[in-house]
TrEMBL record:
Coiled coil: none annotated. One of its GO terms (cellular component) is plasma membrane. This is Acyl-CoA dehydrogenase. Residues 234-383 form the Acyl-CoA dehydrogenase/oxidase C-terminal domain. One of its GO terms (molecular function) is oxidoreductase activity, acting on the CH-CH group of donors. Belongs to the acyl-CoA dehydrogenase family. Pfam families: Acyl-CoA_dh_1, Acyl-CoA_dh_M, Acyl-CoA_dh_N. Residues 125-220 form the Acyl-CoA oxidase/dehydrogenase middle domain. The lineage of its organism: Bacteria, Bacillati, Actinomycetota, Actinomycetes, Kitasatosporales. The keyword Mitochondrion does not apply.
Amino acid sequence: MSSVEEFRAEFRAWLRSHLTGEFAGLRGRGGPGREHEAFAERLAWERHMAAAGWTCVGWPKEYGGRGATLEQQVAFHEEYALADAPARVGHLGEQLLGPTLMAFGTPEQRERFLPPIVTVEELWCQGYSEPEAGSDLANVRTRAELDGDRWVVTGQKIWTSLAQESNWCFVLARTEPRTPGSARHAGLSYLLVPLDQPGVDIRPITQLTGTSEFNEVFFDGARTHTSHVVGAPGEGWKVAMATLGFERGVSTLGQQVGFRRELEAVIELAKGNGAAADPLIRDRIARAWTGLEIIRCNALRMLDGVAAGAPGPEASIGKIFWATWHRQLGELAMDVCGAAGMAAAGEPYDLTDWQRLFLFSRADTIYAGSNEIQRTIIAERVLGLPKEPRP
């Protein structure tokens, strides 16, 4: 196994030589609020990465990965971000479902589902949130009932990222009715459901940015084989919580490279239009720079949990901090723009990068666990405070 610096240099050189030609125009494309950009081209790029062995680098070699160490995985995500390479399209399969199957899946499930994730031939989305079960995930109402060797799924999921581009969805559904006095999360199962079938209706949600990264997904008698339950039926809560733990993985280090690039651009804008002469703006910029350093410290501290298998509840500290910081950066960017930031760049709703940052970052403190829920996790699971009353 090469050293971290050798690994970093190898990947940096590969990016430099391959983000050229047909892929040169993909630099900086995609990402939150911009997932619609050049999706087919980004998919082709990611399959190009797969052919060279640069997807799923942290996975064990037996599952098609490189077996990269934690430090090498950090280097991978940082170099990818530093190269301004396009936003990944297979990250939900690679970073969430894949590790979940390695931890809880059967050998047959791993053999069936892991290789197409490595080669980016199958894309995944996450079927957790519902209109009545967002942060309160134990309240899911989507149900699945056995019919011979198939589970029949009925219900609605919402805020399903990139469902319109996905082949499969990992769905948290109720397979056992709730009984009086039972735990709210009992009787849930973690199902792998194909989306290209009758009984699945995907409806994109138009967001403030004018784009549609999120979707509603309606299941009306959709079917999946009984072998497509991860973990035992009725024990889906444990599996689902593990998946959420994997979401706080090493890729957050790469995310911060993007944050730093955005902050540096805000600083240059403030210098260029004179906003930096305002002492209040200068103070907010200084606070933003300090906050970014704290985000990195939190992420590095969280890596101990990643090394142990999955981040613990302490990872909620990092989620609250970066989400709030990024939302405030969007507000700062608009204040630096001044009155000009109120006008669209063109007809009918062509947004500037700053406007898109401001609008989409409003969601940062909600998705992947709202700030309210993260504070509850910290209070109850880290500080050991009494639990909130439950209905």
